[in-house]
Design brief:
Helices cover 52% and strands 18% of the residues. Helix 1 packs parallel to helix 3 and helix 4 crosses helix 5. It has 2 domains: 85 residues; 71 residues, 2-Layer Sandwich (Alpha-Beta Plaits), CATH 3.30.70. The chain has 183 residues and is an alpha+beta fold. The protein has 5 helices and 4 strands.
Length: 183
């Protein structure tokens, strides 16, 4: 390995930009592949993994052929980091899978649960005791695409509600609301 080279010819700049874009795409695919694998979508994860590796082999080959070129190494590294963020953003937009939501409210008479049920969400209401007295836990599982809708309904019914959301993998059947598939 010789001295590092900082070259700004049009050829080097264009190749570096191509390396950056290819790594962004490759890492975005890698991030999606991991998430889809965790969500039991193994065939799609396999296909994404295949294409991600083709992109990786081609891009690393170009960088290693001229490893002393700082611009190409920088483009590769920046593409890797940016691709991870793009993949996370894209996965959030796809919102594949399900979320378990717990809404804790101090409001009486099932106001939050009733507001959710009016929009056909399947809610289990559980009476509980908090630090300052009686509360209700509204427990529901929804497609991740509908999380914002649930949050909006809950906030309209009780602006002070405490809401937690976590990703889950459901394994048994249950009522998911009209128009939604029962697993």
């Amino acid at each position: 390995m010789g001295p590092f080279i900082l070259e700004f010819s049009w050829n080097t700049i264009l190749i570096s930009l191509l390396i950056f874009v290819v790594r962004v795409v490759g890492m975005a695919l890698d991030t999606l592949r991991i998430v889809l694998g965790m969500r039991r979508m193994h065939t799609i994860a396999w296909v994404l993994g295949f294409f991600e590796m083709v992109i990786y082999v081609l891009s690393i080959g170009v960088v290693l052929a001229d490893v002393n070129n700082v611009l190409k190494v920088f483009a590769y590294s920046a593409g890797f980091a940016t691709g991870s963020v793009v993949g996370i953003w894209f996965e959030g937009k796809l919102a594949i899978g399900y979320a378990h939501i717990i809404i804790i409210t101090k409001l009486p008479n099932s106001l939050v649960a009733d507001a959710l049920r009016a929009k056909d969400f399947a809610v289990t209401e559980i009476p509980a005791a908090g630090k300052d007295g009686a509360v209700s836990l509204c427990d529901l599982t929804v497609a991740r695409k509908r999380v914002k809708e649930v949050e909006q309904i809950a906030r309209e019914a009780d602006p002070d509600a405490f809401i937690t959301i976590e990703d889950i993998t459901p394994i048994n059947r249950g009522y998911w609301g009209a128009g939604q598939l029962s697993r």
